[in-house]
Design a protein that fits this description.
By secondary structure, the protein is an alpha+beta fold. The protein is 59% helix and 13% strand. It has 11 helices and 6 strands. Helix 5 runs antiparallel to helix 6 and helix 6 runs antiparallel to helix 7.
Length: 277
């Protein structure tokens, strides 16, 4: 092979070029625009909400739930501690709150009693007298409860017995105004005044006696009924199996049925019926 001067110079030139390129790169200023030219900034911005949206949404949901819980807790504390909201006003004690609420309710019931008695046909003066007696009875119950609470026998057999004795001595509105007026009073005050048969069991005493769905029981053993607690008490009184008379209202007419004393075998409902119809 024949050597030429160019063959000796080529490696030297390549080496010098590489050295020159390295130093030129180190000394050249960085162009920010050029450096980021290969980065798609718009693409990054578009991906950011996609990446963080679920995380942020979950965080907002948790914060909203905590805020609702905090608001509910504040409302509860405000209702339980009125003195914190109105320092100038002394919050009533639990006993005073209970007594006051009961007294307010009894007062409203007394006024409503007088109005409904007048609507049932009583003279106003008589209705007010009966309402006054009932109010005195309500106050007597409050006094007994207060006494039992102070002497620490509120939830005892003694308290229940004393309350039963008090109720037994109370004047009965039903006895004072009579059955018919009492029936009207119940209707005027929006209370139930009839016991309705919703269903009759197969093979029951009621079915054998001829009771039907929809019958209204007016009396049992010749005693007027206005609620099914009375009926339950009468079915368990007396001698089991003795024949008694039951009067029902069916289609506007009264029907008398003979049944043995004991369970009727019926489903019962309460009803409010205008006695004048």
């Amino acid at each position: 092979m024949k050597f030429t001067p160019l063959m000796f110079l080529a490696p030297v030139l390549v080496t010098l070029g590489a050295i020159f390129g390295y130093y030129a790169k180190q000394q050249a200023p960085v162009d920010p625009a050029g450096a980021l030219a290969t980065i798609d900034v718009a693409a990054i911005k578009s991906l950011t909400p996609t990446i963080h949206a679920p995380r942020e949404a979950g965080r907002m949901t948790r914060l909203e739930a905590e805020l609702r819980q905090l608001s509910a807790k504040v409302a509860q504390l405000e209702s339980q501690q009125p003195a914190l909201l109105a320092p100038a006003e002394q919050a009533p004690t639990p006993d005073n709150r209970q007594t006051g609420a009961r007294f307010s309710r009894d007062t409203n019931e007394t006024a409503s009693l007088a109005d409904n008695l007048v609507k049932a046909g009583l003279e106003p003066w008589r209705a007010e007298d009966i309402a006054r007696k009932q109010s005195q009875q309500a106050l007597a119950r409050l006094e007994l409860r207060d006494k039992a609470a102070r002497e620490n026998y509120l939830r005892t057999t003694r308290f229940r017995q004393e309350m039963q004795e008090l109720e037994a001595s109370a004047p009965s509105v039903r006895d004072e105004i009579g059955i018919d007026t009492y029936d009207k009073y119940l209707y005027q005050s929006g209370q139930s005044n009839r016991v309705a048969i919703s269903s009759v069991m197969t093979g029951s005493a009621a079915e054998q006696a001829g009771m039907l769905d929809g019958d209204l029981i007016l009396s049992y053993d010749n005693q007027r009924l206005f609620n099914y607690r009375q009926l339950r008490g009468l079915t368990t009184a007396g001698e089991r199996g003795e024949t008694i008379n039951v009067t029902v209202s069916r289609g506007g007419s009264e029907v008398s049925l003979a049944l043995p004393r004991g369970p009727l075998g019926v489903g019962l409902e309460t009803a409010s019926v205008d006695p004048q119809q």
